[in-house]
Amino acid sequence: MPNRRFADGEVVMGRWPGSVLYYEVQVTSYDDVSQLYIVKYKDGTELALRDSDIRTQSSFKPRKSQSSSSSPSRRSTSRSRSRSPGRPAKGRRRSSSQSRENKDDKKKTVPETNLPILVLGFFKPSENNTRSYNGEPDSTEVNDTSCIISEQKLKPDLEIERVLEQYSLRPRKEEKKKEETYSEKNILEPVKTIEKPSSKTKELEFGGRIGTFMMMLFLPATVLYLLLLCKQDDPSLMNFPPPLPALESLWEPRVFGVFLLWFFLQALFYLLPVGKVVEGLPLSNGRKLQYRINGFYAFVLTAAIIGTLLYFQFELHYLYDHFMQFAVSAAAFSMVLSIYLYIRSLKAPEEELAPGGNSGYFVYDFFTGHELNPRIGSFDLKYFCELRPGLIGWVVINLAMLLAEMKIHNQSMPSLSMLLVNSFQLLYVVDALWNEEAILTTMDITHDGFGFMLAFGDLVWVPFVYSLQAFYLVGHPTAISWPVAAAITVLNGIGYYIFRSANSQKNHFRRNPADPKLAYLKFIPTATGKGLLVTGWWGFVRHPNYLGDIIMALAWSLPCGFNHILPYFYVIYFICLLVHREARDEHHCKQKYGLAWERYCQRVPYRIFPYIY
């Protein structure tokens, strides 16, 4: 472990992350594990800096004037009119020895230049540290006396190169050679650097290889068990195992054909040239993928087709009659899709592999997803499955359950409970499609690969488990009063408000932290250049969007009454899922932001539930 160079309380010069500017800072502490110094700027901003980003104040002292010891020729040059430092005075002849000495001096000057760098693109930390982009402060003041500009003495970077070219401090014949040399050796460091992720996944989630293998068996079995239980007169969890149907009754080619038709119909809607095209977040190689935002248009077209089918007396409750077969068909298709995804990922470049699905273990990578963004041309398979077939299919299934309830119970109108479930979940789906662009900043898109976990989750778990309440109400109708319905509606509205406003704050801040509309938000700067919000919903709990999710999930289950716990499986599952995601996010953020995340946790102590957890 390297020795510590700076003591607590020592005043040094710290480099602002992402720039070449150094400011006077005071060392407050040192972390032996991460080997980072916690320094405090004059405006109160605290950052974690590496040892290489800190210098002593003595290294910034200006050199003494050399005019008194300059040669006669240099004194005459200084008295002449302003000219480039490398240009000799006109009319003065030099000896051959002086020319050779000056030529050698100029060669030595190139790697040891002490010219100050004026970088207009970087500013000093603002006193009101409320907005930032990639760690760069807002203030445009570059003449502040508290700002000291670094004197580079080694390999010149981009700004030094410009100064050297302006003042001709080296022979012109060598300029191109030097430029090519620096380009080949990658000496020029860009302002915004993107760290390349490690080639192999070191930390395995979900119980590693054994855990992921068991989940590939457990997840389909869970879906089958829940659907079989809902069909029973007494859907108690204690009735285990439920009566199992004959295996041949679980598969029907016609149902599988209908599922394929649905999948490729949504794929056709995805390819329509409607909606805007946006860029996703930068990948590990700095490249940004483009996505067409037209999910809401696909939903409208689907609604038009469903309405047309109903107008021509199409029996949509066919979905209810063959619900089990549809679930098996979707599971079979997701498995085939997962196999295709893994085979094609074996030929993908290293930089296109998922950081969490590149362990080298077949079962683990197959489950979590080996390739980050598998595409067929411009068709992004993961992005398409994330919102289209499963999420829109969820709404269609709920509608089929509503019609099935009316037919089975000879009702002219659906029950109030069924209306609430359909309305609440329709709002959730429409919101996701309307705010489709926000999904580009989620971990599903930016971090997780596309494998069995997401394929099964998007195509099977979402449409067939999330519709569990509507499926339950068909066979077990529950009557509720209007006051109870009003109270449940208010609860769902509170959850939705928290969910949407928290996600909007996060997404807008990630996209454009300099937006004047976000000026009221405060944040903790990090060494990565990003900020951690400490006001708004994100100053209330660390994951307010998860809190809104859980409140809405409870509101979706309450119309089913309290006769059985089965409708509340979704709530229990959702709490377990979000607690797992929260722990995963905590671990990821702690690794990414280091001590800044610890400061954030101290300021925002509650994770999901205020004053509880």
Automatic annotation (TrEMBL):
It is found in: Cytoplasm; Endoplasmic reticulum membrane; Nucleus inner membrane. Residues 65-75 have a biased composition (Low complexity). It is a multi-pass membrane protein. Residues 100-110 have a biased composition (Basic and acidic residues). InterPro entries: ERG24_DHCR-like, Lamin-B_rcpt_of_tudor, Sterol_reductase_CS, Tudor. It catalyses: 5alpha-cholest-8,14-dien-3beta-ol + NADPH + H(+) = 5alpha-cholest-8-en-3beta-ol + NADP(+); 4,4-dimethyl-5alpha-cholesta-8,24-dien-3beta-ol + NADP(+) = 4,4-dimethyl-5alpha-cholesta-8,14,24-trien-3beta-ol + NADPH + H(+); 4,4-dimethyl-8,14-cholestadien-3beta-ol + NADPH + H(+) = 4,4-dimethyl-5alpha-cholest-8-en-3beta-ol + NADP(+). It holds the Pfam family ERG4_ERG24. It is an enzyme of class 1 (oxidoreductase). The chain crosses the membrane at residues 206-228, 255-274, 295-314, 326-343, 454-474, 480-499, 520-541, 561-580. Residues 4-62 form the Tudor domain. Gene3D superfamilies: 1.20.120.1630, 2.30.30.140. Its EC number is 1.3.1.70. Belongs to the ERG4/ERG24 family. This is Delta(14)-sterol reductase LBR. It comes from Podargus strigoides (Tawny frogmouth). The gene is Lbr.
